[in-house]
């Protein structure tokens, strides 16, 4: 009998396998798990060349899966000015960082930053064109709000984009204007961002490859061994080549499922590729669409007006006819569809489209995904499940964004956000994710908020939707694998699955919820190889 390359024994091993929830030993051969059970079960697989790790009661579990984040974008964000909270707490501090960056930029070079949150600034407003003009009068500036659904730009950027008081709002977007003068104030929402973003020089291929390396390093240090990239194949140029080069150089070490924009999807279809296409490390996956904006920036499409902006209901990217057409076309072409839908109005329209597409062309096991499915009213939840849709949720939003959501939605509707327990009770599989870089993507925040629904202020929202830590862990392991058709190869510890394993500093199921925020990762393994920390 062949012998294992690696054996873990004397462990507290959380398998996420419902048939065998805990074991004390695991054996690995090559990149796969070949046994999970008692010490005796793996003893027969131990030979002279087997590395034996005595866990001595420590916890071993499957690696985390972030089912929706912006992986390559996050890598590039690490190269931009960090204007996020708590790095900055005021517009003056943002201005100082922009001015400092301007000193090292060539004349006319773009200055980019990411992550400001007006709700956490002492000013309680967004930086405008005039603020940024003072900081960098000779450079075009663009700063992305933490939600990713709007940017703040200066006058130089507006001038280069040809945006003035006479420029019409693009469909699905808004150029925010001064109520008195009608002049653009430098805030561009949703599709209006593209008026400026199209002018940004693309990152070079080597820069994107380095961004993938930076992303991988961070994810692995937090125990994330798999993820779905929710945007890059239509927001960043040269990206597909960069993913391939990063993989070839060994820089890509997080298993990645790429979502595609409609243009890329059309190209794969014309080549006769059936998606998912790729291997266990890098796959072309679903087609990605947008329906609305976000709650923090008040651009998600709601049925009733925002609590803090009477009469205002947010922004839709398409009308119902366009939703119907785009979803049906992608469905009929055989794609898995991942559609961003945050507000209850957007969710209604998306559900209408899926219902029509599935009635006209029934497809079993389609696994279409509603990304966020955030302000999901009680009447909508069973419909999501009945249509066989996968609601991909981000409970970690509550920690850093919850207080602003309470302000924007009011307490009744904020309690509707991310109704994980209701969905699980209805039989849904609910993957967990972060939407990074929108929030800190460390899975500990998602686990903590799934269990407590607490904001960083200590306020709680919709505690009736709290779930057990075991269910929360399943969101960030098995459910994420299911959402990418990969539950048979990863997400649990059992023979035949990939050896993607982590050792956390504590057993997350045996500590108080507040202690989850202190959880560290001591070792991360992908495919039987240690990629962070050590086995000692």
Overview of the structural elements:
With 536 residues, this protein is of the alpha/beta class. 31% of the residues lie in helices and 21% in strands. It contains 19 helices and 24 strands. The strands form four sheets. Strands 8, 15, 16, 17, 18, 19, 20 and 21 form an eight-stranded mixed β-sheet that branches. A six-stranded mixed β-sheet has the order 3-2-7-22-23-24, with helices on one face. Strands 9-10-11-12-14-13 form a six-stranded mixed β-sheet. α2 crosses α7. The longest helix is centred in the middle third of the chain and has 17 residues. The protein starts with 5 loop residues before the first strand and ends with a strand.
List keywords for this structure.
eight-stranded mixed sheet; 536 residues; alpha/beta; 31% helix; six-stranded mixed sheet
Shape: globular
Helix content: 25-40%
Give me the number of helical elements: 19
Could you tell me how far the N terminus lies from the C terminus, measured between alpha carbons in angstroms? Answer: 27 Å
Rg, Cα atoms, Å: 23 Å
Q: Strand pairing plus helix content: what structural class?
A: alpha/beta
Mean pLDDT: 96
> Roughly what fraction of the amino acids lie in strands?
15-25%
User: How would you sum up the major sheet?
Assistant: 8 strands, mixed
Segments where pLDDT lies below 50 for 5+ residues? none
Count of strand segments: 24
